[in-house]
Design a protein that fits this description.
The protein is 44% helix and 17% strand. With 253 residues, it is of the alpha/beta class. Strand 6, helix 7 and strand 7 form a beta-alpha-beta unit.
């Protein structure tokens, strides 16, 4: 059985088809991450209607660009997440982005939102699903001030030295379908030992013309097997155990 630990399931137009495909690929559970003020309620709602979907709530750094009111909505967002704390398995997608978002004026606000979400994760004792693109150094520094034990870094493609730091600190790294065409991702996977790997689709993000789907993580598994020279069955087992360690609420809620 496979688990997609990072998907934006609220963005699919035909979610039922997507979930049917996932089941056919033996994907058992899908973590759907909220990212905007508007997506929070929808994230909870689709999880209530679909047994295999587990919600995570958070604010994506892109919100600083897309939503002019985000700073004023922060209290309301905190309240909403706290209200739903029993139902969620993680805080995410949260983080900072200094790569896709070029406007440096937005960075202080990104940091403010991120710190706020980290505090919430610490208070609620929940794992985090992290976006780090271009802000790896600062994020790795910030994380040392928090007591958050379960940390997943999604779609990591930054400097290699932080992979080592992350592994030393017990972080996990979820690998996307980009592995099929990206030498960088193949190299990232090569640097991560089997006990720190997870799978994700980040759907419905586009991978060379194909819409990202949870069913694709079956192929991500095979690609990792090729790099690690290990059988599908063994890797599937390992990753399943890794997922249980970092996201225990997938089995208790
Ligand atoms: Zn994402």
């Amino acid at each position: 059985m496979l688990i997609d630990v990072h998907c934006h399931a609220n963005l699919y137009l035909e979610l039922d088809n997507v979930l049917d495909e996932a089941k056919k690929a033996n994907v058992e559970k899908i973590i759907t991450v909220g990212m905007s003020f508007l997506s929070l309620e929808r994230t909870i709602e689709i999880a209530q209607n679909h047994k295999m979907i587990y919600p995570a709530l958070g604010i994506h750094p892109e919100e600083t660009l897309m939503n002019k009111n985000i700073e004023n909505q922060l209290d309301e967002i905190n309240e909403y997440i706290i209200q739903n704390k029993e139902q969620i398995c993680a805080i995410g997608e949260i983080g900072m982005d200094h790569y896709f978002i070029k406007d440096k004026d937005l960075y202080p606000l990104q940091k403010k939102l991120f710190l706020d979400m980290l505090e919430l994760a610490q208070k609620l004792n929940l794992p985090i699903n992290l976006h780090t693109k271009g802000a790896e150094q600062e994020i790795f520094e910030i994380l040392t001030s928090f007591k958050i034990t379960n940390i997943n870094i999604h779609w990591y493609s930054g400097p290699e030295k932080y992979i080592k730091t992350g592994i030393d600190r017990g972080y996990f790294f979820s690998i996307t379908p980009a592995i099929s065409h990206s030498p960088i991702i193949k190299k990232v996977v090569d640097s991560i030992d089997l006990n720190h790997l997870l799978l994700e689709s980040d759907g419905p993000v586009n991978y060379s013309g194909k819409i990202g789907m949870p069913s694709m993580i079956r192929n991500v598994l095979s690609e990792i097997c090729d790099i690690k020279n290990i059988s599908n069955e063994e890797l599937e087992n390992r990753i399943y155990q890794n997922t249980k360690i970092i996201f225990p609420k997938l089995w208790t809620s």
